[in-house]
Amino acid sequence: MPASVRILADENIPGLPHAFGEDVTVQKMPGRDIQRSDLSAVDALLLRSVTRVNEDLLKGTSVKFVGTATIGLDHIDLDYLNASNIGFAYAPGSNAQSVVEYVLAAIAFWLQRTNRTFKGLKVGIVGVGRIGGLLQKYLQQMGVHCLLCDPPRQAQEPNETYYSLQSMSEADVISFHVPLTQRGPWPTRHLIDVAFLNALSADQLLINTARGDILDNQMALYYVQNTASPVNLVLDVWQNEPMINAQLVQHCLLATPHIAGYAIEGKWRATAMLCQALSDYFQVPFKRTALDRNIRVNDPWQPQSNENKVSKLLSYYDISQDDQALRNEIKNLPQSFDKLRKNYPTRHEFLASV
Ligand SMILES: NC(=O)c1ccc[n+]([C@@H]2O[C@H](COP(=O)([O-])OP(=O)(O)OC[C@H]3O[C@@H](n4cnc5c(N)ncnc54)[C@H](O)[C@@H]3O)[C@@H](O)[C@H]2O)c1
Ligand SMILES: O=C(O)[C@H](O)[C@H](O)COP(=O)(O)O
């Protein structure tokens, strides 16, 4: 192992280099600009989702360890890392609560607009992993009925009740929490197809916080432009970020620049997970306490049965501000998309754990 560990990090990962001592050096760069030529004297690369990690980037470099401060892994060629014996870490669950709070705020926004409450609501959850499972717990705590769709889990848990993707159209709200995959028995690229959209109506809400490629955006634009009463769309993730489909934005109930997971505690939790993994890998000390105080949620909200959950949720997180910020900057794409993400205002997690 090197005498000192040289890290190249995405400039949008908070908390570096304070978590390490003098045996670690940290250089920062915009994630989209990182190229192979930047990696000749780098031991560890710490990234976000905007840097594609593959043979093109890493071949012939000195990189021994890659960490991504994200839940999603679709930007990483894991086969190449394994074959090249490069250490790897990611941040599973780090921003799950943030995404769940985004989804609950989006539902609350829609309910308020339609003068409704959570009472009697049916929510379909597609992908019941860390995020989908947490969403299910919070919704059930609020008395909301959930329909679960997760074929990989269904194959492992034949005695549990799971629904098909098609039957999700029975729900008032359908929220997607699948990883982006192209291969295997249950690929998710373009999982939301025209047949699925055609089975929905203007009385329903579809939320995609998973990845942009789950929904063919060009097809979705055609659908909203040519359907009398299209489903209400809430999109946080887009195909071809940062050059997203500006026309589709105009047709969304809520449109945001991939910030569902951006509550500040989630970001610091991801940093802590990567620093711990890097510290174990290179056997260098890591000051966990330097990060811990940013991860704690102050005074969390425990929903009560007799309170107005719609207005309470929106008082914690007014999601319409994130939507408005994107609409205000839509003429300045693609730069504005990354700018809004880089300068995202501080949003705190607010739900008590379930
Ligand atoms: N918008 C954001 O800011 C944001 C933040 C965090 C994560 N994400 C995205 O959310 C995804 C899910 O995160 P997670 O932590 O819950 O992942 P997870 O791996 O814990 O859960 C994913 C679940 O999806 C299921 N699944 C896989 N293929 C499926 C299919 N075809 N149909 C239905 N279910 C399927 C899996 O069985 C699993 O239970 C991430 O991969 C990432 O792309 C987005
Ligand atoms: O997968 C994730 O964790 C999220 O999509 C994450 O919030 C993406 O943010 P980025 O890495 O692009 O800043």
UniProtKB/TrEMBL annotation:
Tell me the GO molecular function terms. 4-phosphoerythronate dehydrogenase activity; NAD binding; protein dimerization activity
In which residues is NAD(+) bound? Answer: D150, D236, G261
Start and end residues of each D-isomer specific 2-hydroxyacid dehydrogenase NAD-binding domain: 114-260
Pathway field: Cofactor biosynthesis; pyridoxine 5'-phosphate biosynthesis; pyridoxine 5'-phosphate from D-erythrose 4-phosphate: step 2/5
Q: Does the keyword Amino-acid biosynthesis apply?
A: no
Q: Where is the Erythronate-4-phosphate dehydrogenase dimerisation domain?
A: 306-351
Q: Cellular location of this protein?
A: Cytoplasm
**Residues annotated as the enzyme's active site:** R211, E241, H258 (proton donor)
Q: Which GO terms describe its cellular component?
A: cytosol
Give the catalytic activity: 4-phospho-D-erythronate + NAD(+) = (R)-3-hydroxy-2-oxo-4-phosphooxybutanoate + NADH + H(+)
**GO biological process: what's one of them?**
'de novo' pyridoxal 5'-phosphate biosynthetic process
Organism domain of life: Bacteria
Query: Can you tell me which residues bind substrate?
Result: S49, T70, Y262
- Which key words tag this protein in UniProt? Cytoplasm, NAD, Oxidoreductase, Pyridoxine biosynthesis
This enzyme's EC code(s): 1.1.1.290
Q: Answer whether the UniProt record assigns the keyword Transmembrane to this protein.
A: no
| All residue ranges annotated as the D-isomer specific 2-hydroxyacid dehydrogenase catalytic domain in the record | 20-261
Q: Please name the Pfam families in this protein's record.
A: 2-Hacid_dh (PF00389), 2-Hacid_dh_C (PF02826), DUF3410 (PF11890)
Query: Where is this chain primarily localised?
Result: cytoplasm
**InterPro entries according to UniProt:** D-isomer_2_OHA_DH_cat_dom, D-isomer_DH_NAD-bd, Erythronate-4-P_DHase, Erythronate-4-P_DHase_dimer, NAD(P)-bd_dom_sf, PdxB_dimer_sf
Q: Which residues form the signal peptide?
A: none
Q: Relate the protein's function as given in its record.
A: Catalyzes the oxidation of erythronate-4-phosphate to 3-hydroxy-2-oxo-4-phosphonooxybutanoate.
Q: How does it assemble?
A: Homodimer.
- Stated family: Belongs to the D-isomer specific 2-hydroxyacid dehydrogenase family. PdxB subfamily.
Q: What is this protein called?
A: Erythronate-4-phosphate dehydrogenase
- Give the species: Marinicella pacifica
